[in-house]
Amino acid sequence: MQTVVDLVAIVGLTLLLVRQQIGGLTAEYSVMLLLLVMGMVFTYDQFGVYRSNSSFTRKALTLLKAWSLTFGFLLLVGFAAKQTDAFSRLLLGQLFVTGYLLQVLLQYISRQVQTRIMAHAVPADNVLIVGTGKLARYLQNKISGNPWLNQNVVGCLELPSAAKISADKISVTLYETSDFGTLEEPNIIGTLDDMLVIIGQNDVRTVYFAIPLGESDLIEDMYFQLLDRNVAVHWVPDIFSLLLVNHSVREIAGLPVLTLSETPLTGTRLLLKALEDRVLGTLILILISPFLLLIALAIKLDSRGPVFFRQARKGWSGRIFHIWKFRSMFLHKPETGVVQQATRNDPRVTRVGAFLRKTSLDELPQIFNVLKGEMSLVGPRPHAVQHDEEYSQRIASYFARHNIKPGITGLAQVRGLRGETKEIDRMQQRIEADIEYINNWSLWLDLTILIRTMGALTGKNAY
User: Fold this and answer.
1) What is the pTM of this model?
2) Cα dihedral sign for 300, 303, 305, 310?
């Protein structure tokens, strides 16, 4: 319903602005309006605008990202079709600002109306959470802060000591940073032995089991006790002590499937990523072509040898490909089977190569890998195959970073995690950033990283 309301509001606003400033709907503005609606439907679905139950502030921020990306799509189509001069910049600016504010207002009104309707029309269900660990805390706060659920948490039950210890090991990666800092302590009202008494005293209609996977015997015992109590039972398994990669819950042939690890590039997301790389990659290649020629000439004049350097790397799903880079070192014969990382003041680096490495311009030829589909503009940086083998033996789940295409730049790079990795902790931080990127992938995140990359091309770790 909210989707329809927003679309109707935006269409109405657009028609009003066009009538006021143009005089009537022309063929160009008809096409623009159609593309705007299509972009909203597709982009808002990708951002989960109508599926999230976060705070109003976060919902407004998500809406801003989706709306901005929709307008970015319009501008991209306009530039590609060379039709930007056919549209009023004032009208587009007013539509962007007013359209966003109108949607925020509609979202706010919808939330207030829903809250009041639920509060007066339907009595809230009392719910009980079995568990007191971080997962139980997270669940308690999310239920209490979600007016759409219309549920009231009466409290949490403490688990037996062994299960409680296991539950407290849940990784904080389950929560977003802003969420975790505001979580309230669980309201403990008893132990597991008190469950049936508390259910009767508080007229509990729903029970959530927030307990570890290894305590399935507890679930079985409690479940059979609750079958005769007309209580809805939900199990929220503790899977967050594992390293989750783009986890999700889905259904196959009527069976619930809990996905612990999967690439985010499936279905329309794969198409979006491919379009992003091909369209932006082509534009970037056109822009940097003069620089590629100048750099190639400088390399040839500075030292003997080829302009380009190619090296085997592991890409998406562990497939081997050969990465393109400008040669930044003198010709030398490396030790058999050994790939030595470049270090600060490395004598193997040429004069031009030192400048290229300092500014990351040696990475520019990887745009050809992007256009071939072997790499992406944004993603985890691919390491040498020998380094993959070395670090995979020292860092747990190292190869989880291969669940998405490698990139020219990435989240780790814009955070300064680049260059030589003498300490294993530094590589660990880089891997954590890569997996964070996979778990949160979106077009908006890619665009943000590309913009931040401009300020991270040089830095203390670039050499």
Assistant:
1) 0.64
2) negative
